[in-house]
Structures are given as C-alpha cells and as structure tokens.
Design brief:
98 residues; 5 strands; globular
Length: 98
C-alpha cells in the first residue's frame, strides 16, 4: 500500500511540475473601428498581415519608419490589443520546391 501511495505521489508531482504556466497581463479592448482609428492616428501603423481563426481575425499593424507594431484580435465589433512593441524583423518564407 505504501508503494502505491508513493507512486501516486510521484505521478502527481510530475503532473504538477509539467503544468502550463499562465500569464496575467492586461488586454485592452474597444469598438473595432475606434481601435483601428486610434492606432492609425497615434502610431501611424497600418495592417500588414491578417489571419482568420474560428473566433475572428488576428491583425498585425506596423509602422515601418518607427518600427512600432500592434497585434490585434478582432471579433465582430470588438478589437483587443494582444501585444505591442518596437523593433521587428520581416521574415521571408523559406524557398519550397513543389
């Protein structure tokens, strides 16, 4: 019985040790048209990439001159800022042979 309890405890500790970390950070949301206008006016950023997902779209906006960027998640009439920063590198996809 003691061996079973120790095995159970070992498994439990292993599971807890491999649990995913969570990140607690503020996410700013607002009406989509208003958020896009603020980013355009304040930071002179414009969209360079849009990706579709089940819950809406992701949009990356950048200012090539100042090197600022904003990542938005947009769902219907609500846009949320997932991240912002300065400095970025544009990457080219690798060459593929079909």
């Amino acid at each position: 019985m003691r061996r079973i309890a120790l095995a159970f405890l070992f498994c439990l500790i292993s599971i807890i040790g491999h649990a995913q970390n969570t990140l607690n950070k503020p996410v700013y949301c607002g009406e989509t048209a208003s958020m896009l206008q603020i980013i355009k006016d304040r930071y002179q950023e414009s969209p360079v990439w849009i990706g579709s997902q089940r819950t809406g779209i992701l949009m990356l906006m950048v200012n090539q001159t100042t090197q600022t960027w904003t990542l938005l998640e947009i769902y219907e009439q609500v846009a949320c800022v997932l991240g912002t920063g300065n400095q970025f590198n544009s990457m080219q996809p690798p060459n593929t042979v079909l």
